UniProtKB/TrEMBL annotation:
One of its GO terms (molecular function) is oxygen-dependent protoporphyrinogen oxidase activity. This is Coproporphyrinogen III oxidase. Pfam families: Amino_oxidase. The lineage of its organism: Bacteria, Bacillati, Actinomycetota, Actinomycetes, Micromonosporales. The keyword Acetylation does not apply.
Length: 469
């Protein structure tokens, strides 16, 4: 193996940059790391912009502080590694609401992504099916099975719990529907306990007990100054060469490594490297793997994605409830599926002049036609629907922004984890110096993507025969 190693990271989102940082920390000294990003902007779905003179997130808004075991999440650990721990801030208002019958009702506590562990606590928003969650003498889910979240919850709690609680909660994260999303991938803690417990209430309670949270401990965090500071710090710490506007169009094995074809068809650049971290969505990854690993490409490329638009408005002194925001069940017939009151939720964003930043999310899987509307039409519809939900006309915005994220959110169908494991096993056997990382494989959320990138980096180090520093 030549020295120094040359590693390409394809994709400049948080997974790819976390991989680059981990490579710099643990690969042999002198390792050459190059990040290829086909757009002109790093960070993927982490993008801090500016509205009405202050920073605001146009993509992901926050990260979980703890992982499922209760330990510090990978996002917090990365922030600490990058010297940003002191910039972590937490919501000052945590209570959110659901839109039910056109009005706002507080989201009941004690649920796991909307799945209740106490049926009495959700009676204000949904009527659980009577006596359906009975002990049948066997676990809810077989040892190797995966089901949709909606199918499991409907069979135990009925339609209203799915439609008014679980569906809007999952829709806020994935822009998908509970009836289509994998239990194992989207709710792994519940999937584990459902393989043991005989009732869904018991499974929820067991999952909650397995990851206890100290009273008053914050669930979410973000960075003062915006999440783009995490991206900037990761680039600096990685010491990587960053190539923006550099699309990797082909990946070819060379016998000793890989040849990347970069840039336009008419004038391509050929780059030889020892290993590759593919930190791009499933379909671009599948295109790159189609030549060297066609069976893997077919399995990976089957994953579908949802598109969303985020409409942010700066409103002069609106009358807003003391809520972090609200979620909208699809049964309400609204275009918006969620809203966040940024300057209420995050105390560090509040302004003395009373200007409020409000963001609404638009777009559900299978309803992409709604996103074809012009920006002005989307913004006007969001403004009108927000006013209707709040029961009071909102003032005209003094500034606004529409951020479209095409193909942004993976739709993990049941069986996703098994399909991915098979693809990774085959790729590892045939081409161990190419590793997949990112939301398309391991789940959404900043901590999961960070961990995915770091794990990919460790696999590359092992595959190249090196020892971590």
């Amino acid at each position: 193996m030549r020295q120094p190693w040359r590693v390409a990271v394809v994709g400049g989102g948080i997974a790819g940059l976390a991989a680059a940082v981990r490579l710099r920390d643990r690969a042999p000294a002198g390792t050459e790391i190059t990040v290829y990003e086909q757009s002109g902007v790093l960070g993927g779905k982490l993008r801090t912009g500016e509205l009405a003179g202050q920073p605001v997130e146009f993509g992901a808004e926050s990260f979980l502080m703890r992982d499922p075991t209760g330990a510090e999440s990978a996002a917090v650990a990365l922030a600490r590694r990058l010297g940003l721990a002191e910039k972590i801030v937490h919501p000052t208002v945590g209570q959110a609401a659901l839109v039910i019958d056109g009005g706002l009702r507080p989201i009941p506590g004690g649920t796991l992504v909307g799945v209740p562990g106490d049926l009495d606590r959700v009676a204000t928003v949904a009527r659980p099916a009577a006596d359906a969650d009975t002990d049948g003498g066997r676990p809810l889910v077989g040892p190797d099975a995966d089901v949709s979240v909606g199918a499991l919850v409907r069979s135990r709690f009925g339609n209203e719990v799915v439609e008014r609680l679980v569906d809007p909660m999952l829709g806020g994260v994935y822009a998908g529907r509970a009836d289509d999303l994998s239990l194992v991938t989207t709710m792994p803690a519940l999937a584990r306990t459902a393989r043991v417990e005989h009732t869904l209430v018991g499974a929820v309670r067991a999952a909650q007990a397995a990851a206890p949270r100290a009273p008053g401990a914050p669930v979410f965090g973000t960075l003062a100054g915006g999440l783009s500071t995490l991206i900037e710090a990761a680039v600096t710490a990685s010491g990587a060469t960053v190539r923006r506007d550099a699309a990797v169009r082909e990946l070819t094995p060379t016998g000793t490594g890989w040849r990347l074809t970069v840039g336009p068809t008419r004038d391509p650049e050929l780059v030889d490297v020892d290993a590759v971290v593919l930190a791009v969505p499933a379909r671009p990854a599948a295109r790159l793997l189609a030549g060297p690993a066609p069976a893997v490409a077919a399995g990976v490329g089957a994953l579908d994605y949802a598109s969303v638009a985020l409409v942010t408005m700066a409103l002069p002194q609106p009358r807003l409830p003391e809520l972090s925001g609200f979620l909208v069940p699809s049964t309400e017939g609204l275009l918006i599926k969620a809203a966040t009151f940024f300057t209420t939720k995050w105390g560090h964003l509040r302004r003395p002049d009373g200007l409020a930043l409000v963001r609404a999310s638009v777009g559900r899987y299978g309803e992409e036609a709604h996103l074809q509307r012009p920006d002005a039409d989307l913004a006007a519809t969001v403004h009108r629907e927000l006013s209707a939900v709040l029961g009071t006309p909102l003032p005209a915005p003094v500034d606004g922004h529409v951020q479209r994220w095409g193909g942004a959110l993976p739709q993990y169908a049941p069986g996703h984890a098994d399909r991915l494991a098979a693809a990774r096993t085959a790729l590892r056997a045939a081409h161990p110096t190419v590793v997949l990382a990112g939301a398309g494989y391991d789940g959404v959320g900043i901590p999961v993507c960070v961990r995915s990138g770091e794990t990919a980096a460790e696999e590359i180090i092992t595959a190249l025969g090196g020892s971590a520093r």
